[in-house]
Amino acid sequence: MQLVVGRIGRPHGVRGEVTVEVRTDEPDLRFAPGVTLVTDPAPAGPLTVERARWHKGILLLTLAGVEGREAAEALRDTLLVVDSADLPPIEDPDEFHDHELIGLTVVTTEGERVGEVSDVLHHGQDLLVVARPSRDEAYVPFVKALVPEIDLGKKILVVDAPPGLLDAAEVE
What we know:
The protein is 8% helix and 44% strand. The chain has helices spanning 27-30, 69-74, 98-101, and strands spanning 2-12, 17-22, 36-40, 47-55, 58-63, 79-83, 105-108, 113-123, 125-131, 138-141, 149-151, 156-159. A 6-stranded antiparallel β-barrel has the order 1-2-5-4-3-6. The protein has a 6-stranded mixed beta sheet with strand order 10-9-8-7-12-11, with no helix packed on it.
C-alpha cells in the first residue's frame, strides 16, 4: 500500500526549488538529501532530494534534474509516497500508522456496528472519520477515553461514545 508523505506545492524562486506540504511525522528522515521519492503520478518521478531546508515553517526541496521555475511548476500537486511495508513498526502499543486504522470496522462498547474508519485527520487533535451507511460521517477524537480498544487482527475499533457524538442526521 502506498502512503502519502508529502505533496509538492508551488515553486519557490526561479531555480527549481519546490515547496512541500509535509504529511509525515519524520520529514527530516523522509526528505533527507540523497533520498529517492516515488511519485503519484508515477511518470513524474522518481525524484531524488539534493537539498532540503526549512523556510518560515515550510519545507523546501531541491530535486535532481528539476531546474528552473517551469520544471518545478510542472511537479505541482505531485504526491510523494512510500510503501507501507517500508515503514518501521511502532513500538508504542497505543500508537498506529494511519493506514492501519483506515478500513477498520467501528463498533460501540455494546457491540453495535457504527461504520468504518475512512480517514484520519491531523488538525491539532487527531480525528477518526467514520463512514456510516445512510448517515453523515462521524468524527471521533482519537483519544484513549473514546477509543478504548483497537484489535488489528480482528479489524475492529471500539468507540465509547458519549451521548450525541454519533447522533448525526440520516442522509435522505
